[in-house]
From TrEMBL:
GO MF annotation terms: S-methyl-5-thioribose-1-phosphate isomerase activity; translation initiation factor activity
Function summary: Catalyzes the interconversion of methylthioribose-1-phosphate (MTR-1-P) into methylthioribulose-1-phosphate (MTRu-1-P).
Name of this protein: Methylthioribose-1-phosphate isomerase
Keyword Isomerase: yes
Coiled-coil regions listed: none
Pathway(s) of this molecule: Amino-acid biosynthesis; L-methionine biosynthesis via salvage pathway; L-methionine from S-methyl-5-thio-alpha-D-ribose 1-phosphate: step 1/6
Keywords: Amino-acid biosynthesis, Cytoplasm, Initiation factor, Isomerase, Methionine biosynthesis, Protein biosynthesis
Length: 374
Protein backbone atom coordinates (compact mmCIF):
# COMPACT_ATOMS: atom_id res chain seq x y z
CA UNK A 1 0.00 0.00 0.00
CA UNK A 2 1.03 3.65 -0.06
CA UNK A 3 2.77 6.00 2.37
CA UNK A 4 2.82 9.51 0.94
CA UNK A 5 2.30 8.07 -2.52
CA UNK A 6 5.15 5.55 -2.22
CA UNK A 7 4.38 1.82 -2.26
CA UNK A 8 5.51 0.37 1.06
CA UNK A 9 5.43 -3.02 2.75
CA UNK A 10 5.43 -3.41 6.52
CA UNK A 11 8.60 -5.55 6.42
CA UNK A 12 11.36 -5.92 3.84
CA UNK A 13 15.02 -6.75 3.28
CA UNK A 14 17.51 -3.92 3.14
CA UNK A 15 19.82 -3.52 0.09
CA UNK A 16 22.54 -5.51 1.87
CA UNK A 17 20.34 -8.58 1.33
CA UNK A 18 20.23 -9.75 4.93
CA UNK A 19 19.17 -6.95 7.32
CA UNK A 20 15.43 -7.00 7.99
CA UNK A 21 13.65 -3.63 8.09
CA UNK A 22 10.20 -3.06 9.58
CA UNK A 23 7.99 -0.10 10.38
CA UNK A 24 8.05 0.52 14.14
CA UNK A 25 4.31 0.52 14.78
CA UNK A 26 4.71 1.70 18.36
CA UNK A 27 5.71 5.13 17.04
CA UNK A 28 2.73 5.63 14.73
CA UNK A 29 0.82 7.80 14.02
CA UNK A 30 3.03 10.60 15.29
CA UNK A 31 6.39 9.34 14.00
CA UNK A 32 7.30 7.19 11.00
CA UNK A 33 10.36 5.19 12.08
CA UNK A 34 11.98 2.21 10.38
CA UNK A 35 13.62 -0.34 12.69
CA UNK A 36 16.43 -2.60 11.52
CA UNK A 37 16.58 -6.16 12.82
CA UNK A 38 20.05 -7.67 12.63
CA UNK A 39 19.76 -10.86 14.68
CA UNK A 40 17.20 -13.32 16.04
CA UNK A 41 17.07 -11.65 19.44
CA UNK A 42 16.04 -8.36 17.87
CA UNK A 43 13.38 -10.08 15.80
CA UNK A 44 12.01 -11.75 18.94
CA UNK A 45 12.05 -8.45 20.82
CA UNK A 46 10.24 -6.74 17.93
CA UNK A 47 7.43 -9.29 18.14
CA UNK A 48 7.25 -9.30 21.93
CA UNK A 49 7.28 -5.50 22.25
CA UNK A 50 4.77 -5.08 19.39
CA UNK A 51 7.17 -3.13 17.21
CA UNK A 52 5.51 -5.45 14.69
CA UNK A 53 2.04 -6.85 15.35
CA UNK A 54 -0.82 -8.51 13.55
CA UNK A 55 -0.88 -12.28 13.11
CA UNK A 56 0.40 -12.48 9.49
CA UNK A 57 3.17 -9.95 10.09
CA UNK A 58 4.23 -11.72 13.28
CA UNK A 59 4.61 -14.89 11.22
CA UNK A 60 6.68 -13.18 8.53
CA UNK A 61 8.89 -11.51 11.13
CA UNK A 62 9.48 -14.83 12.88
CA UNK A 63 10.47 -16.43 9.57
CA UNK A 64 13.04 -13.70 8.99
CA UNK A 65 14.13 -14.12 12.61
CA UNK A 66 15.07 -17.72 11.84
CA UNK A 67 17.01 -16.56 8.78
CA UNK A 68 18.90 -14.06 10.92
CA UNK A 69 19.69 -16.82 13.41
CA UNK A 70 21.08 -19.03 10.64
CA UNK A 71 23.53 -16.27 9.66
CA UNK A 72 25.15 -16.57 13.07
CA UNK A 73 24.93 -20.34 13.50
CA UNK A 74 23.30 -22.76 11.05
CA UNK A 75 23.54 -25.85 13.25
CA UNK A 76 20.61 -28.04 14.25
CA UNK A 77 20.97 -26.84 17.82
CA UNK A 78 20.82 -23.18 16.75
CA UNK A 79 17.71 -23.85 14.66
CA UNK A 80 15.98 -25.38 17.68
CA UNK A 81 17.03 -22.47 19.91
CA UNK A 82 15.72 -19.91 17.40
CA UNK A 83 12.42 -21.79 17.06
CA UNK A 84 11.89 -21.92 20.82
CA UNK A 85 12.93 -18.30 21.36
CA UNK A 86 10.57 -16.95 18.72
CA UNK A 87 7.56 -19.13 19.50
CA UNK A 88 7.61 -17.92 23.12
CA UNK A 89 7.08 -14.27 22.14
CA UNK A 90 3.28 -14.18 21.62
CA UNK A 91 0.93 -17.03 22.63
CA UNK A 92 -2.32 -16.26 20.80
CA UNK A 93 -1.58 -15.65 17.11
CA UNK A 94 -1.26 -19.06 15.43
CA UNK A 95 0.52 -17.62 12.36
CA UNK A 96 3.64 -17.44 14.51
CA UNK A 97 3.73 -21.20 15.00
CA UNK A 98 2.71 -21.83 11.40
CA UNK A 99 5.60 -19.76 10.02
CA UNK A 100 8.14 -21.30 12.40
CA UNK A 101 6.94 -24.80 11.51
CA UNK A 102 7.32 -23.91 7.82
CA UNK A 103 10.87 -22.72 8.44
CA UNK A 104 11.74 -25.89 10.34
CA UNK A 105 10.33 -28.09 7.58
CA UNK A 106 12.28 -26.15 4.96
CA UNK A 107 15.60 -26.13 6.82
CA UNK A 108 15.78 -29.47 8.65
CA UNK A 109 16.71 -31.48 5.51
CA UNK A 110 19.21 -28.85 4.30
CA UNK A 111 22.94 -29.05 5.08
CA UNK A 112 24.05 -26.34 7.53
CA UNK A 113 26.32 -24.85 4.85
CA UNK A 114 23.27 -24.16 2.68
CA UNK A 115 20.82 -23.10 5.37
CA UNK A 116 21.30 -19.34 5.27
CA UNK A 117 20.29 -19.07 1.62
CA UNK A 118 17.44 -21.55 2.12
CA UNK A 119 16.20 -19.65 5.19
CA UNK A 120 16.09 -16.28 3.46
CA UNK A 121 14.42 -17.84 0.44
CA UNK A 122 11.65 -19.47 2.50
CA UNK A 123 11.13 -16.33 4.60
CA UNK A 124 10.77 -14.23 1.43
CA UNK A 125 8.31 -16.78 0.06
CA UNK A 126 6.22 -16.57 3.24
CA UNK A 127 6.13 -12.78 2.91
CA UNK A 128 5.21 -12.90 -0.78
CA UNK A 129 2.60 -15.59 -0.16
CA UNK A 130 0.99 -13.35 2.45
CA UNK A 131 0.69 -10.52 -0.07
CA UNK A 132 -0.91 -12.81 -2.68
CA UNK A 133 -3.30 -14.30 -0.11
CA UNK A 134 -4.44 -10.89 1.08
CA UNK A 135 -4.99 -9.71 -2.48
CA UNK A 136 -7.24 -12.73 -3.02
CA UNK A 137 -9.08 -12.02 0.25
CA UNK A 138 -9.66 -8.52 -1.05
CA UNK A 139 -11.11 -9.78 -4.32
CA UNK A 140 -13.61 -12.03 -2.55
CA UNK A 141 -14.55 -9.40 0.00
CA UNK A 142 -14.93 -6.81 -2.76
CA UNK A 143 -17.92 -8.76 -4.09
CA UNK A 144 -19.70 -8.30 -0.75
CA UNK A 145 -19.12 -4.55 -0.88
CA UNK A 146 -20.15 -4.34 -4.52
CA UNK A 147 -23.45 -6.11 -3.74
CA UNK A 148 -24.22 -3.56 -1.01
CA UNK A 149 -23.19 -0.64 -3.24
CA UNK A 150 -25.54 -1.87 -5.95
CA UNK A 151 -28.47 -1.50 -3.55
CA UNK A 152 -27.54 2.05 -2.56
CA UNK A 153 -29.10 5.19 -3.95
CA UNK A 154 -26.88 7.44 -6.09
CA UNK A 155 -24.41 9.28 -3.90
CA UNK A 156 -24.82 6.97 -0.91
CA UNK A 157 -21.70 5.32 0.46
CA UNK A 158 -21.06 1.86 1.85
CA UNK A 159 -20.28 2.09 5.57
CA UNK A 160 -17.94 -0.52 7.00
CA UNK A 161 -17.12 -0.90 10.69
CA UNK A 162 -13.83 -2.51 11.66
CA UNK A 163 -12.07 -3.21 14.94
CA UNK A 164 -8.38 -3.02 15.85
CA UNK A 165 -5.97 -2.95 12.92
CA UNK A 166 -6.27 -5.72 10.36
CA UNK A 167 -4.80 -3.49 7.70
CA UNK A 168 -1.62 -3.70 5.69
CA UNK A 169 0.36 -2.80 8.81
CA UNK A 170 -0.82 -6.08 10.36
CA UNK A 171 0.28 -8.07 7.34
CA UNK A 172 3.04 -7.72 4.76
CA UNK A 173 0.76 -5.76 2.41
CA UNK A 174 -2.95 -5.12 1.65
CA UNK A 175 -4.21 -6.29 5.04
CA UNK A 176 -6.99 -8.77 5.70
CA UNK A 177 -10.08 -6.81 6.77
CA UNK A 178 -8.91 -3.77 4.80
CA UNK A 179 -8.05 -5.58 1.57
CA UNK A 180 -11.69 -5.51 0.34
CA UNK A 181 -11.93 -1.86 1.43
CA UNK A 182 -8.82 -0.83 -0.49
CA UNK A 183 -9.93 -2.70 -3.59
CA UNK A 184 -13.38 -1.11 -3.42
CA UNK A 185 -11.83 2.34 -3.01
CA UNK A 186 -9.40 1.77 -5.88
CA UNK A 187 -12.36 0.71 -8.04
CA UNK A 188 -14.15 3.98 -7.34
CA UNK A 189 -16.86 2.68 -4.99
CA UNK A 190 -18.01 5.28 -2.45
CA UNK A 191 -16.87 3.72 0.80
CA UNK A 192 -16.46 4.97 4.35
CA UNK A 193 -14.90 3.20 7.32
CA UNK A 194 -15.77 3.52 11.00
CA UNK A 195 -12.53 2.64 12.79
CA UNK A 196 -12.93 1.64 16.43
CA UNK A 197 -10.23 3.30 18.53
CA UNK A 198 -9.54 -0.15 20.04
CA UNK A 199 -8.35 0.39 23.57
CA UNK A 200 -6.01 -0.16 25.23
CA UNK A 201 -3.32 0.14 22.53
CA UNK A 202 -5.54 2.23 20.21
CA UNK A 203 -4.59 0.31 17.07
CA UNK A 204 -7.71 1.54 15.29
CA UNK A 205 -7.17 5.19 16.12
CA UNK A 206 -3.41 5.16 15.59
CA UNK A 207 -2.83 2.53 12.89
CA UNK A 208 -6.00 1.89 10.90
CA UNK A 209 -6.77 5.60 10.67
CA UNK A 210 -3.15 6.35 9.72
CA UNK A 211 -3.01 3.89 6.86
CA UNK A 212 -6.52 4.66 5.56
CA UNK A 213 -5.65 8.34 5.57
CA UNK A 214 -2.42 7.81 3.68
CA UNK A 215 -4.28 5.82 1.03
CA UNK A 216 -7.08 8.39 0.79
CA UNK A 217 -9.96 6.28 2.16
CA UNK A 218 -12.72 8.25 3.92
CA UNK A 219 -12.90 7.22 7.56
CA UNK A 220 -14.11 8.23 11.01
CA UNK A 221 -12.48 7.18 14.29
CA UNK A 222 -15.05 6.24 16.92
CA UNK A 223 -14.82 5.27 20.61
CA UNK A 224 -15.04 1.52 21.13
CA UNK A 225 -18.54 1.66 22.59
CA UNK A 226 -20.10 3.56 19.66
CA UNK A 227 -20.52 0.70 17.19
CA UNK A 228 -23.74 -0.66 18.66
CA UNK A 229 -25.36 2.77 18.54
CA UNK A 230 -24.39 3.20 14.89
CA UNK A 231 -25.83 -0.21 14.03
CA UNK A 232 -29.11 0.57 15.80
CA UNK A 233 -29.49 3.65 13.61
CA UNK A 234 -28.72 1.89 10.32
CA UNK A 235 -25.36 3.60 9.91
CA UNK A 236 -23.32 0.42 9.38
CA UNK A 237 -23.76 -1.80 6.32
CA UNK A 238 -21.34 -4.52 7.35
CA UNK A 239 -18.59 -5.29 9.82
CA UNK A 240 -15.26 -6.72 8.69
CA UNK A 241 -12.62 -7.64 11.25
CA UNK A 242 -9.42 -9.65 11.23
CA UNK A 243 -8.38 -12.50 13.50
CA UNK A 244 -5.36 -14.01 15.19
CA UNK A 245 -6.65 -17.57 15.27
CA UNK A 246 -9.69 -19.42 13.91
CA UNK A 247 -10.60 -22.88 15.20
CA UNK A 248 -11.46 -25.86 13.03
CA UNK A 249 -15.13 -25.18 13.88
CA UNK A 250 -15.03 -21.49 12.95
CA UNK A 251 -14.69 -19.75 16.30
CA UNK A 252 -12.74 -16.51 15.90
CA UNK A 253 -10.14 -15.09 18.28
CA UNK A 254 -9.44 -11.41 17.70
CA UNK A 255 -8.56 -8.23 19.57
CA UNK A 256 -10.51 -7.74 22.81
CA UNK A 257 -13.90 -6.15 22.08
CA UNK A 258 -14.59 -8.06 18.87
CA UNK A 259 -17.11 -10.32 20.62
CA UNK A 260 -19.17 -7.31 21.72
CA UNK A 261 -19.25 -5.99 18.13
CA UNK A 262 -20.45 -9.36 16.90
CA UNK A 263 -23.25 -9.39 19.47
CA UNK A 264 -24.37 -5.91 18.44
CA UNK A 265 -24.23 -6.89 14.78
CA UNK A 266 -26.40 -9.96 15.38
CA UNK A 267 -28.95 -7.93 17.34
CA UNK A 268 -29.22 -5.40 14.52
CA UNK A 269 -29.04 -7.78 11.52
CA UNK A 270 -25.73 -6.33 10.35
CA UNK A 271 -23.52 -8.85 8.50
CA UNK A 272 -20.40 -9.68 10.50
CA UNK A 273 -17.49 -10.97 8.43
CA UNK A 274 -14.01 -12.08 9.44
CA UNK A 275 -11.16 -11.81 6.94
CA UNK A 276 -8.30 -14.27 7.34
CA UNK A 277 -5.48 -16.01 5.51
CA UNK A 278 -5.51 -19.80 5.77
CA UNK A 279 -2.40 -19.90 8.03
CA UNK A 280 -4.60 -18.31 10.70
CA UNK A 281 -6.77 -21.46 10.87
CA UNK A 282 -5.78 -23.85 13.65
CA UNK A 283 -7.17 -27.23 12.68
CA UNK A 284 -5.92 -28.77 15.94
CA UNK A 285 -8.50 -27.06 18.18
CA UNK A 286 -12.29 -26.84 18.11
CA UNK A 287 -13.64 -24.82 21.04
CA UNK A 288 -12.15 -21.34 20.91
CA UNK A 289 -13.34 -20.20 24.32
CA UNK A 290 -11.89 -23.24 26.09
CA UNK A 291 -8.78 -23.95 24.03
CA UNK A 292 -7.25 -20.72 22.72
CA UNK A 293 -4.70 -19.19 25.13
CA UNK A 294 -5.57 -15.54 25.73
CA UNK A 295 -2.57 -13.29 26.17
CA UNK A 296 -2.63 -11.01 29.21
CA UNK A 297 -0.48 -7.98 28.59
CA UNK A 298 1.31 -5.35 30.65
CA UNK A 299 -0.93 -3.18 32.83
CA UNK A 300 0.88 -0.09 31.52
CA UNK A 301 -1.02 -0.45 28.25
CA UNK A 302 -4.17 0.38 30.21
CA UNK A 303 -2.81 2.83 32.77
CA UNK A 304 -0.74 4.93 30.36
CA UNK A 305 -1.42 6.66 27.05
CA UNK A 306 0.99 8.27 24.61
CA UNK A 307 0.05 11.16 22.34
CA UNK A 308 1.14 14.43 20.85
CA UNK A 309 0.55 17.57 22.89
CA UNK A 310 -0.91 20.67 21.26
CA UNK A 311 2.53 22.22 21.15
CA UNK A 312 3.96 19.22 19.29
CA UNK A 313 5.63 17.19 22.05
CA UNK A 314 5.10 13.44 22.26
CA UNK A 315 4.30 12.55 25.87
CA UNK A 316 3.15 9.51 27.86
CA UNK A 317 0.71 10.18 30.70
CA UNK A 318 -1.01 8.04 33.33
CA UNK A 319 -4.82 7.99 33.20
CA UNK A 320 -5.59 5.44 35.96
CA UNK A 321 -5.29 6.20 39.69
CA UNK A 322 -2.24 4.85 41.45
CA UNK A 323 -3.12 1.67 43.31
CA UNK A 324 -6.04 0.61 41.07
CA UNK A 325 -5.80 -2.97 39.83
CA UNK A 326 -5.74 -3.50 36.07
CA UNK A 327 -6.70 -6.49 33.91
CA UNK A 328 -5.46 -6.43 30.34
CA UNK A 329 -6.74 -9.34 28.27
CA UNK A 330 -5.46 -8.93 24.72
CA UNK A 331 -8.09 -10.98 22.88
CA UNK A 332 -11.56 -12.48 23.09
CA UNK A 333 -13.33 -15.26 21.20
CA UNK A 334 -16.37 -14.76 18.99
CA UNK A 335 -18.32 -18.04 18.63
CA UNK A 336 -18.92 -19.16 15.05
CA UNK A 337 -22.70 -18.75 15.46
CA UNK A 338 -22.19 -14.96 15.46
CA UNK A 339 -20.07 -14.93 12.29
CA UNK A 340 -21.81 -14.38 8.95
CA UNK A 341 -18.87 -15.64 6.91
CA UNK A 342 -15.11 -16.10 6.75
CA UNK A 343 -13.45 -14.21 3.90
CA UNK A 344 -10.46 -16.32 2.84
CA UNK A 345 -8.20 -16.51 -0.19
CA UNK A 346 -10.43 -19.31 -1.50
CA UNK A 347 -13.74 -17.54 -1.11
CA UNK A 348 -16.27 -16.57 1.54
CA UNK A 349 -16.86 -19.66 3.67
CA UNK A 350 -19.37 -20.70 6.25
CA UNK A 351 -17.81 -20.66 9.73
CA UNK A 352 -17.94 -24.41 10.28
CA UNK A 353 -15.65 -27.42 10.20
CA UNK A 354 -16.94 -28.92 6.95
CA UNK A 355 -16.50 -25.72 4.97
CA UNK A 356 -13.02 -24.98 6.29
CA UNK A 357 -11.78 -28.54 5.80
CA UNK A 358 -13.21 -28.71 2.27
CA UNK A 359 -11.59 -25.42 1.29
CA UNK A 360 -8.16 -26.24 2.77
CA UNK A 361 -7.68 -30.04 2.73
CA UNK A 362 -3.91 -29.67 2.41
CA UNK A 363 -3.79 -27.64 5.61
CA UNK A 364 -5.70 -30.35 7.47
CA UNK A 365 -3.23 -32.94 6.20
CA UNK A 366 -0.26 -30.73 7.05
CA UNK A 367 -1.39 -30.40 10.66
CA UNK A 368 -1.19 -34.17 10.98
CA UNK A 369 2.39 -34.41 9.70
CA UNK A 370 5.08 -34.70 12.37
CA UNK A 371 7.64 -31.91 12.40
CA UNK A 372 11.19 -32.91 11.48
CA UNK A 373 13.59 -33.09 14.39
CA UNK A 374 16.10 -30.27 14.63
Amino acid sequence: MKVDGIHTRSIWLEPDGWTVAAIDQRRLPHEYVVARLTNCDRAADAIRAMLVRGAPLIGATAAYGVALAMREDASDAALAIAYNKLIATRPTAINLKWALDEMRRALAPVKPADRVAAAYQRAAEIADEDVAINQAIGAHGLKLIEAIAARKKPGERVNVLTHCNAGWLATVDWGTATAPIYQAFDKGIAIHVYADETRPRNQGASLTAWELGHHGVDHTVIPDNTGGHLMQHGMVDLCIVGTDRVTADGDVCNKIGTYLKALAARDNNVPFYVALPSPTIDFTIHDGVKEIPIEQRDAAEVTDMTGRTHDGRIETVRIVPQGSKVANYGFDVTPSRLVTGLITERGVLKPDRASLAAAFPERVAREQEPLPAS
